[in-house]
Amino acid sequence: MSIRERRRRATMRRRNQLTVPAEIVEALHIREGDEVEFTVDANGDVHLRGLMVVPADQRWYWTDDWQRGEREASEQIEAGEGAVYDHVDAMFDDLDR
């Protein structure tokens, strides 16, 4: 087990219910109403990941193309590229050019 790897335990209750330890909830970035996914690999190891529900009218944001554009924009911002405007009219004037 690596230094960053930690183990936590939970007790099985009636009807296969588990209370997920708070530290695991935080690591999975889940909250009430979110789903989790269990995957069993060829060795029998079980992996758990958090899933969040995305409203259907917002699914466009999570498409591969949109996420590629988000990464590109983040890289440009990190590189100091881009412009800052004092007023929205200045931004639109620049876009019109």
From TrEMBL:
> What keywords would UniProt list here?
DNA-binding
Q: Which GO terms describe its molecular function?
A: DNA binding
Query: What residue stretches are annotated with the SpoVT-AbrB domain?
Result: 7-53
Protein's UniProt keywords contain DNA-binding:
yes
Instruction: Output the Pfam families linked to this UniProt entry.
Output: MazE_antitoxin
Gene3D superfamilies noted in UniProt = 2.10.260.10
Record's protein name: AbrB family looped-hinge helix DNA binding protein
